[in-house]
Amino acid sequence: MKRLWTPAWIARHVAMVVLVGAFLALGWWQLSRAAGGNAISWGYAVEWPVFAGFVVFVWWREVRHALRDPTGPSEEPAAADPRPAGESPAAVTRPPVRRPVRVPRTTVPVPGGEDADLAAYNRYLRWLNDNPGARPGDYPG
Length: 141
Prior knowledge:
Layout: H1 7-35, H2 41-67, H3 89-93, H4 116-130
């Protein structure tokens, strides 16, 4: 429970209370406007409490996530110990974090010379250049 009383968590708790209070107050305000004859306010009167419920849901999920055991449940039986002698249990349960590998893009040469699609596109561009007043839809190919 001490994890939930750090300055960052106190700010989250306060933000949750302020947001829920503000959303419920806005819902009440829209409900009073709807009762006064503003028909569109009925939708807002329902919408603001839904927003407040969403804030509570996200806050509760974050609290549960923070209180969860950091090692997680053990899925392997205790008798099967795959680690070599002297290796810590944390090294086996957590996979190593690796940086993404950048693979350079290279073009593969087409046997027989030029790519057929590229050649057709170049013919199209040549035709457009030779016929300056033509529209692209006039291309005969």
